[in-house]
Design a protein that fits this description.
The structure holds 2 protein chains of 2 kinds.
Chain A: H1 6-14, E1 35-38, H2 42-55, E2 60-63, E3 79-80, H3 87-101, H4 103-107, E4 118-122, H5 125-140, E5 146-149, H6 150-156, E6 172-176, E7 180-181, H7 184-197, E8 201-203, E9 208-214, E10 217-223, E11 226-229, E12 232-235, H8 241-247, E13 255-266, E14 274-277, E15 282-286, E16 291-298, H9 310-323, E17 332-342, E18 349-352, E19 358-362, H10 372-385, H11 399-402
Helix pairs in contact in A: 2-7, 2-10, 3-10
Chain B: E1 3-6, E2 10-13, E3 18-22, H1 36-43, E4 52-58, E5 66-72, E6 78-83
Antiparallel strand pairs in B: 1-2, 3-4, 4-5, 5-6
Classes of the chains: A alpha/beta, B mainly beta.
């Protein structure tokens, strides 16, 4: 891999940009790999990268049915934070946030990680009690968090309506200053390029249609581009986790729902931070292009259609306009849906399975993007060592049998 | 927005209904006799199919009765709805 630098920019400018190296190869699938990762989103590519870098596994394939980063990686609102309530969850997300902080340097690829802060608004006395509890829990775990008043919010975000006559009065918020946003496509491309440099085969347009097993152990996968043998298979396919699980005869505690988001027409800079509100089901930030990026809640029904219902859009827009009356005449440019895999306790599964050599990383629900590097890091450890790292041990599939759930429903800015 | 047909009230907009998830899950008659894994399977595991899905809906802002809808989870088309 040729490094990107100011010098390479100059050198390629002199040669009329005709000699840029391809960011990743397009190899044909080999007959056999040591590890096959199913799913070429951010999590899958990060898994392959950390498998190669941290664990010395070289013979890896990432199989993607469409194009890399074309699923939920490219369909989210790019918010990164780690202010979760429970210790297990907050340490996992904090590991991820720490990886984000040096990710551009590590990958030699600008993922445009911008630590512009995230406000989680409180609209009632109970919201404020919950916020104080969560901020206290975060600080005990060494995560930056603070409680801010409505006056402080108004000072930092002049456009927000903090009047007491507002439809959803704002009493205060939690603020995580190290949180922020990143460029979603760049995360997928950066991990793909860095993994490719370690020799990882990234195979697009290759859909897995079956998981082969002998005596309770995986032997490989059937794909639309032929059979591929592998003693270890890591499945990280977000909304389609249940479909892949069924191929291996497993049942998962997961339901897939459409989750919608929108961007507006580009505006001059008006919002330099991220505002989230669980009570009114909306979150908003402004992209570097000037578009307002707005996220909604999930649609109630199970769906794989990558589109949701209009009343969800209306509900979210009502909330955003109530918080920011000045946005009432902003027009929306695009709307899209992703398929999120929701777990009963709103926490992920990064786990071995009853099938030998088969590993699942799923259940991230509405909040997987922020975890991309940490998820890949922990999943790579689980696959390489055949046992979870202590950071993801609590996220075992077994927790649904033992009852040791990690109830994070309250930690998302949008109720799952 | 889905257009759901309540067996009692006819076709109504999705906003009148609340969703109840996978249909046909029977509560085990003797929970104490189950292993933890069997109980967890009843409690948490779901088919979550890509395609035909039998699901429960409640006409919350209408007759308030539960009924079963056969719906495709990819194109969202509803093939039938009938009483429990």
């Amino acid at each position: 891999m040729k490094k990107y630098s100011a010098f390479s920019l100059l050198r390629n400018a002199i040669s009329y940009n005709q000699n840029w190296q391809t960011a990743w190869r397009k190899p044909a699938p080999q007959r056999r790999y040591d590890v096959v990762i199913v799913g070429g989103g951010g999590h899958g590519l990060a898994t392959a990268y950390y498998l190669a870098k941290e664990h010395g596994v070289r013979n890896i394939a990432v199989l993607e049915k469409g194009w890399i980063g074309g699923g939920n990686t490219g369909r989210n609102t790019t918010i990164v934070r780690s202010n979760y309530l429970w210790t297990e969850a907050s340490l996992l997300y904090e590991k991820s946030l720490k990886l984000w902080e040096s990710l551009s340097q590590e990958l030699n690829y600008n993922v445009m990680f911008s630590q512009r802060g995230v406000y989680n608004l409180g609209h009632s006395l109970q919201d404020m009690r919950d916020i104080k509890r969560r901020v206290g829990a975060n600080r005990l775990n060494g995560i930056d968090a603070e409680v801010v008043t409505a006056a402080q919010i108004k000072q930092a975000i002049p456009l927000i309506d903090t009047s007491l006559t507002a439809r959803y009065p704002i009493l205060g918020a939690s603020l995580q200053r190290r949180a922020g946003v990143a460029r979603h496509d760049a995360v997928a491309w950066g991990f793909a390029r860095a993994a490719d440099a370690y020799g990882v085969d990234i195979i697009e347009q290759c859909e897995v249609t079956g998981i082969n097993r002998v005596d309770g152990k995986v032997t490989g996968v059937e794909t639309t581009r032929g059979a591929i043998d592998a003693p270890k298979i890591g499945v990280v396919v977000a909304g389609h986790a249940s479909v892949l699980a069924e191929m291996a005869g497993l049942r998962l505690p997961i339901e897939s729902h459409p989750l919608q988001a929108f961007v507006s027409e580009p505006l001059k800079p008006v919002l330099d931070t991220v505002v989230m509100s669980g009570a009114v089901h909306g979150y908003i930030s402004q992209s570097d292009k000037g578009e307002l990026v707005i996220g909604a809640g999930i649609d109630a029904y199970n769906g794989y259609g990558q589109r949701g219902s209009f009343q969800t859009i209306e509900h979210t827009m009502e909330a955003i306009v109530a918080l920011f009356p000045v946005f009432s005449r902003v027009r929306m440019l695009r709307q899209w849906g992703g398929i999120v895999d929701v777990c009963p306790d709103a926490c992920p599964i990064i786990s071995k399975t009853p099938v030998g050599g088969l590993y699942f990383n799923c259940g991230w629900g509405t909040g997987g993007f922020k975890a991309t590097p940490g998820s890949g890091w922990a999943f790579a450890h689980t696959i390489a060592q055949d046992r979870p790292h202590e950071l993801n041990a609590a996220f075992d599939l077994q927790r649904f049998t033992s009852g040791a759930l990690i109830d994070e429903h309250g930690a998302a800015a949008v109720a799952h | 927005m889905l257009l759901l047909r309540c067996p009692h009230c006819g076709e109504r907009a999705e906003t009148e209904f609340s969703y109840g998830g996978e249909a046909g899950i029977q509560r085990p008659p003797d929970p104490a006799g189950l292993s933890d894994a069997e109980w967890a399977d009843y409690l948490f595991n779901r088919k979550n199919p890509r395609g035909a899905h039998a699901e429960l809906w409640n006409h919350a802002l209408g007759c308030r009765r539960w009924f079963i809808v056969q719906r495709d989870t990819v194109n969202y088309r509803i093939s039938e709805s009938h009483e429990l």
